[in-house]
Amino acid sequence: MSQWGFYFNQDRCLGCLTCKMACKNWNEKRRGDASINIRSYLQDNQEYASEQNGGEYGVGLGQEENQNIYLDSEGRSNYEEFNKFYMKEDWRRVETYEYGTCSLDKSTNTFVQGVDRRYLTISCNHCSDPVCVKVCPMGNIRKDPVTGAVLVVSYESCISCGKCKEACPWDAPQFYDNNFAAYKQDDPKRPKMTKCTLCVDRISVGLKPACVAACWNRALDAGPVEELIAKYGEGNITTTLPEFKSSQTPLGDTQPNIFFKKKTDRIRK
């Protein structure tokens, strides 16, 4: 097995959320409610959807201001219908941290700006010793033998107990409804746990994960751990950031596979 991981250059991240949106777009059909919310309107109105709604996903290029695209063939708004089909889980998240202070220079009566932002993009870190695997009572989470990715074996056998979500330091296991525990076990709409797959489907055909491929400022990368270390320099990367939660858990160190380049402090002293 060649263990894959992520590399994040905090200096290059602008907090644009492109990685988050790319993840949602690529994994739209893998969201937890995908089998529940069927595109019945589009299936029954394929010709209308193609001509008026820009195709399967709604708004066509240059059609954003066309009010008709938000109406069905009987003049009713289809906003709520389309809203069912957008991925509600956040497999990848971008967190923002402000630091520094802003002070008043009494001699000039002007504010001296000493504030900056740091960003952290985070998903599943595909740990070498994942705690989610240890706590799943169904044995439903395992390491991929090829990439080392932490994957759900079967969504159908998930009992939605939430133990994996509680155990993970980075909230990687996700549910499309945060009130998943309120559903009865026999309710077909009971949310099943979903999570980042490291885009093993893309990796298998020689592509980078969707979040990495979409990062226009190249703040994010992924690959076999040994290759990431060689590429970015062992002395130039770290496994910790002030914003990154500890990997120590009651069940031991999860050993996350992610490396960082810490943001350079640009605040004037």
Structural class call reads alpha+beta
Task: Bin the strand percentage.
Answer: 15-25%
Coarse shape: globular
CATH hierarchy class name of the largest domain? Alpha Beta
Tell me the count of domains.
2
Intertermini distance: 48 Å
At the fold tier of CATH, the topology name of the largest domain is Alpha-Beta Plaits
By CATH, the architecture of the largest domain is named 2-Layer Sandwich
Give the helix level as a range of percent.
10-25%
Low-confidence runs of at least 5 consecutive residues: 39-58
**How many strand units?**
9
How are the strands of the biggest sheet laid out side by side?
A: 6-1-9
Quickly count the helices.
9
- Please trace the helix and strand order, writing H or E for each element: EHHHHEEHEEHHHEHEEE
Task: Describe the sheet with the most strands.
Answer: 3 strands, mixed
Radius of gyration: 22 Å
Mean pLDDT: 86
What does this entry look like structurally?
The chain has 269 residues and is of the alpha+beta class. 20% of the residues lie in helices and 19% in strands. It contains 9 helices and 9 strands. The protein has helices at 18-26, 40-44, 46-52, 79-83, 131-135, 163-167, 200-203, 210-214, 225-232, and strands at 4-9, 93-105, 110-122, 141-143, 150-152, 220-224, 248-249, 252-253, 258-261. The strands form 4 sheets. A 3-stranded mixed beta sheet has the order 6-1-9. Strands 2-3 form a two-stranded antiparallel sheet. The longest helix has 9 residues, at 18-26. The termini are far apart. Mean pLDDT is 86; it is low at 39-58.
